[in-house]
Amino acid sequence: MGSLSIWHWLIVLLIVMLVFGTKKLRxxxxxxxxxxxxxxxxxxxxxxxDKPAQSAQPKELRDSTTIDVEAKDKSSQQK
Length: 79
Description:
single chain; about 80 residues; mainly alpha; 4 helices
């Protein structure tokens, strides 16, 4: 009873088609597809713009594992 079979989905699809009509569903599908395509294109453009900026930075700034040497010296002086 908890899971929906293929027949349940077909009945739901039939009811949705009767309520909204096929033309309206087609328009909604096209709008949704255009939005997804626009989002993907925007992500590609953003990635392309970020790559040259990363390579322009020195390696020391790109390294994510930085160590604060002064903090280590302070902790060893307190002991």
